[in-house]
Amino acid sequence: MRGVFETHDADRRGALGTHELRAAVEEMGHAPSEAQLRALLAEFDFDGSGDLDPLEFTALMARMLGYKELPAEQVWVVV
Q: Which of 25, 44, 63, 67 maximizes the CB count within 10 A of its CB?
């Protein structure tokens, strides 16, 4: 997951904003609406920064890869 994160961290600040997150999610074959993208960001932005750091991004990717039974705030513990 680290490599995927770094690929999409275009500005190299260690966090993915909405445009970078959209690119990562679309690469996985999904086409989220703006509302869906904001909902994902709100659910997985545990520290309230407005962006996803590597752990938050990993939690989101774990959910997208099939860990749907876990609440968002617990997914990163498993990964």
A: 44
Asked if residues 72 and 23 have their Cβ atoms less than 8 Å apart, the reply is: no
Q: Mean pLDDT score of the chain, rounded to an integer?
A: 84
Q: What is the DSSP string of 51-65?
A: SB-HHHHHHHHHHHT
Could you identify the residue written with the tokens 């617990």? 74
Nearest to 24 by CA among 47, 40, 45, 42: 40
Residue 50 in this model has a pLDDT that exceeds 80: yes
The whole-angstrom separation of Cα 17 and Cα 70 is 24
For residues 10-38, give the mean pLDDT. 91
What Å distances lie between residue 41 and 1, 21, 59, CA to CA? 17, 8, 11
pTM for this predicted structure: 0.77
